[in-house]
Write a structure and sequence with these properties.
The complex is a heterodimer. Chain A is built from 17 helices and 19 strands. Chain A is α/β, with parallel strands linked by helices. In chain B, strand 6 and strand 7 form a beta hairpin.
């Protein structure tokens, strides 16, 4: 029998038809929508005079533009309010499940999907958001799509896609002290570059990946897009099943046993061939941080920014443009640089485990005076749990400002903007120019490193600040 | 919905050799709040094009009247990052119908094809030729021929063929889109869904 990869198994079982000399007609099990990339899709359905084919396969939540304060009140920003109201209107009209502001399961779409147990192994999942790759942590094929494709899924539950090439990235061994899954993915992207996996779908494998919790796996899969990959996935195992068991939409009783039996078949066969493979040693990975304006521009916190040696042409120009934006010079260390803001949150690191790790390390300490510290839980559920576990109290005593769930300062569509020229060390996923506000300078790092920066006020190696 | 048919485009081009241009640069998130598809062109490359007071930045190529045309020649890894189709809407709304680069991000490329902006992938060498030719003569014309899958620098006759699958090519030359195709196979999809 042909040896196939996990990715092949899921992809091939969802092809309705292969168009000759064209893409596959690809069936979508679950579709998430939010307020920013869905309104035009619904508008076009109306123009075509068609409806939503399978409303129960779509789930909605407003997350991108929502304020993170006073969510019980009417949204003040007129345009944001209109988008959220449009989402409500469309969900009502087409009978789509909506997790609205203030309800028990409101939150960032990639946080609530797994929390509700909607995300399951073997599924195909799309959303008009590139970080849909997050759901791959469950052994699902999940990727971001454009609004035209959102329209296709609403209208037909299918999209037209050419099958990507396959890449496997294996990380073997034990992670060192102070090294988290965020550091693993920032390390991988720094090696492969921001475009190195374009055209591929990635499977993450190896003992260092298998030993991670579901939250930590989601952080890794989340950032697959930052190296250009359409998505990334991890074979489901006991960690996955334990996470899902008892979740609202997870199968129960006999159905659960049947599902687990199927999920256990979802793995890459020994000897299956990938188009490209990378191998890394977990012991080589240290706390990471980005210094430039794409996520591939990452270094160890203790390292110096690269010099321009060996660079030429537009490569060098783009590198220098990036450093100029950041206010950094080639070859200088980042450690010790003064920081203005820290942001803990987003679909990358806005889960309970992330908030726990920050709270654990700042307990009994105070943030530095020069730091404004925002912490934005990924969902209401995370927020509730953080209160119940006493984390909110610890964080507030340390001087962190806890806000309400949403995408917030990750993309600064709402008021949570970093001012021009200011430095933010952020647990989010993108350090693009202006991503966190016009002129804002973003450095990406793990929640642990962010906690260390919050306390010292400078770029800091977390291993030097915390003893355990 | 596809906008219009694309067959042969012959025009001058606007050069943007910067590498790794992400969709946050093409259209910053704070301008994504519309619920319709039109009007994004005004904010195309907003923060590179205008200062904080809204005055045009003289050194940015879109503010340089030397360059014009329906073809954007862009640097390597164009359109990375966010899946926002608004980036392509902005490019279209501004007046571009074709983007040429030696490397495109996947989602951006799909989004282009879905609304009828032709993404043309050329070799890095040919991209360099285009940049040099435009720098030497901003009025130099480029021909993009979709039926023949060929891009030509008209002044010198130098050309290169580009790839596009037959299905997408057919869609673009006829102004069809994927939904037309999918709606026509509705019962096949129903049968597939029922079997799951």
């Amino acid at each position: 029998m042909e040896k196939t990869t996990l990715f092949d198994k899921i992809w091939d079982s969802h092809v309705v038809r292969s168009v000759p000399a064209g893409p596959d007609v690809f069936f979508i099990d679950k579709h998430f929508i939010h307020e920013v990339t869905s309104p035009v899709a619904f508008l076009n359905l109306e123009k075509r005079g068609i409806g939503v084919k399978y409303p129960h396969r779509t789930i909605a939540t407003p997350d991108h533009n929502v304020p993170t304060v006073d969510q019980d009140q009417t949204i003040k920003d007129k345009l944001s309010r209109m988008q959220v109201e449009k989402l409500r209107e469309n969900c009502k009209k087409y009978n789509i499940e909506l997790h609205d502001l203030g309800t028990a399961h409101h939150g960032i779409v990639h946080v609530i999907g797994p929390e509700l147990g909607v995300t399951q192994p073997g599924m195909t999942i799309v959303c008009g958001d590139s970080h849909t790759s997050t759901h791959g942590a469950f052994g699902a094929i999940a990727f971001g799509i454009g609004t035209s494709e959102v329209e296709m899924v609403l209208a037909t539950q299918c999209i037209m896609q050419s099958k990507p090439k396959k890449m496997r990235i294996s990380v073997e061994g034990e992670l060192g002290r102070g090294v988290t899954s965020k550091d693993i993915i920032l390390y991988i992207i720094s090696k492969i570059s921001a475009a190195g996996a374009t055209g591929y779908f990635v499977e993450y494998a190896g003992s260092a990946i298998r030993n991670l919790s579901m939250e930590a796996r989601m952080t890794i899969c989340n950032m697959s897009i930052e190296m250009g990959a359409r998505g990334g996935l991890i074979a489901p195992d006991e960690t996955t099943f334990n996470y899902l068991k008892g979740k609202q939409y997870a199968p129960a009783g006999e159905e659960w046993d049947k599902a687990v039996a199927y999920w256990k078949t979802l793995k890459t066969d020994d000897g299956a061939v990938f188009d490209k493979e990378y191998h890394y040693d977990a012991a080589d990975i240290e706390p990471m941080i980005t210094y430039g304006t794409n996520p591939g521009m990452g270094i160890k916190v203790v390292d110096n920014i690269p010099t321009t040696e060996g660079m030429e042409g537009s490569n060098k120009t783009s590198f220098l443009k990036s450093l100029d934006y950041m206010g950094f010079a080639p070859g200088e260390p980042v450690k010790g640089k003064v920081v203005d803001y820290v942001f803990v949150g987003s679909c990358t690191n806005g889960r309970i485990e992330d908030i726990r790790s920050v709270a654990h390390f700042v307990k009994g300490k105070k943030k530095a005076d020069n730091i404004t510290a925002w912490i934005v839980p990924g969902s209401r559920e995370v927020e509730k749990q953080a209160h119940e576990e006493g984390l909110v109290k610890i964080l507030e005593e340390a001087g962190f400002e806890l806000r309400q769930p949403g995408c917030s300062a990750c993309l600064a569509m709402n008021d949570d903007k970093i001012p021009a020229g200011k430095y933010a060390v952020s647990t989010s996923n993108r350090n693009f120019e202006g991503r966190q506000g016009p002129g804002a300078r973003t450095m990406l790092a793990s929640p642990l490193t962010v906690a260390a920066v919050a306390v010292t006020g400078r770029i800091t190696d977390p291993r030097e600040v915390f003893n355990n | 919905m596809a906008y219009d048919k694309f067959t042969v485009l012959r025009d001058t081009a606007v050069p943007l050799p910067t590498e790794n241009v992400d969709t946050d640069q093409i259209i910053p998130a704070r301008f994504l709040k519309a619920t319709e598809r039109e009007g994004f062109g005004d904010n195309l490359f907003r923060d590179w094009r205008y200062d904080v007071e809204g005055n045009p930045k003289k050194d940015f190529v879109l503010n340089d009247t030397t360059y014009s045309g329906k073809i954007l020649v862009a640097g390597k890894n164009f359109g990375s990052g966010s899946s926002r189709e608004h980036a392509v809407w902005a490019i279209y709304d501004y007046g571009f119908r074709c983007v040429v680069s030696s490397f495109f991000a996947d989602i951006f490329k799909n989004n282009c094809l879905n609304i009828g902006v032709l993404p043309v992938t050329v070799t890095p060498e040919f991209a360099d030729k285009l940049f040099s030719a435009i720098a030497a003569d901003p009025k130099t014309e480029i021909e993009v021929n979709l039926p023949q899958q060929k891009i030509t620098l008209l002044a010198t006759g130098e050309s290169e063929s580009f790839e596009i699958n037959e299905y997408k090519k057919d869609n673009m030359t006829n102004g069809f889109d994927d939904i037309d195709y999918l709606l026509n196979m509705s019962s096949e999809i129903d049968a597939f869904a029922a079997s799951r």
